[in-house]
Amino acid sequence: MSALPVAVTCGEPAGIGPEIAAAAWAELKGDVPMLWIGDPRHLPGGTPIAEIADPAEAVRVCDTALPVFPHRFAGPVTPGTPDLSLAQGVVDAIRIGVDLVRSGSASALCTAPIHKKVLQDGAGFAYPGHTEFLAHLGGDVDVVMMLASDQLRVVPATIHIALSDVPSALTPGRLRRVIETTATGLRERFGIAAPRLAVAGLNPHAGEGGAMGREELEWIGPMIDEIAQSGLDVSGPKSADTMFHAAARETYDAAICMYHDQALIPIKTLDFDRGVNVTLGLPFVRTSPDHGTAFDIAGKGIANPSSMIEALRMAAKMAAA
């Protein structure tokens, strides 16, 4: 067991975050010590908790109770019904979690899902999402979103933008940064000494020699060749429709994809319940379950905690690496 806990932010309290955190603690309490940051009133009734003031106490109490680093919100919560008055507390919990990790009081950060519209309306949240806010808290660094499971790791070079905006957003500088940040992350966070990267094409059949688009010929392919000549094991551009079957996945450690769905459809098809969101490029380890707040099932006791469990396990492994 690690000498430091993984800091777990509460996320949107009206969503499934509190209940999957409690379920993850029940599953992992002997293996992955954690420290939940939020209002104890928002946890499921009957959850054994221990409110602590010193994060170092978390490891000692984690076997018998969920360690809670209390941050009082404006009020209680009704599962499934977001309350704008609680939004600032969610933002505060994220800041606290980052501070704990950066100060050396926690080994890694695992964030429960937030609801961006609630934060924007209730707390004036000025960021497109969790990842961008964490990049700001980490020193305004360039970051990369990776979705990871035991079967596949994928990195979208562009994320939450319209498909029509992808060709203009996908610049050579952006793609190069994504490739290099992914390689560094695999070395430093996953312990892969010589990472192998496969890069998908932007167009169907990777442009099919220019018949279906010329980006692959004009700059994507030449840039990949240039990076490969510098010593990085990177290949492509590859036709995305042949990159994700079992034999193809054996040939690389991560797939670099050009847009959101090109990356997320294969991993969610292969391992929907256990995929983990990882942010590479931060000065600390951050993971998150790969799903949203699920207001429709919050508080009903039916939320699947598998992705949160895997996110905590992965956070601990990455911190150790």
Automatic annotation (TrEMBL):
It holds the Pfam family PdxA. Substrate binds at residues 130-131, 268, 277, 286. It is found in: Cytoplasm. GO terms for cellular component: cytoplasm. Its cofactor is Zn(2+); Mg(2+); Co(2+). InterPro entries: PdxA, PdxA_fam. Its EC number is 1.1.1.262. Its main location: cytoplasm. The keyword Disulfide bond does not apply. One of its GO terms (biological process) is pyridoxine biosynthetic process. It catalyses: 4-(phosphooxy)-L-threonine + NAD(+) = 3-amino-2-oxopropyl phosphate + CO2 + NADH. Pathway: Cofactor biosynthesis; pyridoxine 5'-phosphate biosynthesis; pyridoxine 5'-phosphate from D-erythrose 4-phosphate: step 4/5. A divalent metal cation binds at residues 160, 205, 260. Keywords: Cobalt, Cytoplasm, Magnesium, Metal-binding, NAD, NADP, Oxidoreductase, Pyridoxine biosynthesis, Zinc. GO terms for molecular function: 4-hydroxythreonine-4-phosphate dehydrogenase activity; cobalt ion binding; magnesium ion binding; NAD binding; zinc ion binding. It is an enzyme of class 1 (oxidoreductase). NCBIfam families: pdxA, PRK05312.1. Catalyzes the NAD(P)-dependent oxidation of 4-(phosphooxy)-L-threonine (HTP) into 2-amino-3-oxo-4-(phosphooxy)butyric acid which spontaneously decarboxylates to form 3-amino-2-oxopropyl phosphate (AHAP). Homodimer. Belongs to the PdxA family. This is 4-hydroxythreonine-4-phosphate dehydrogenase. It comes from Aliishimia ponticola.
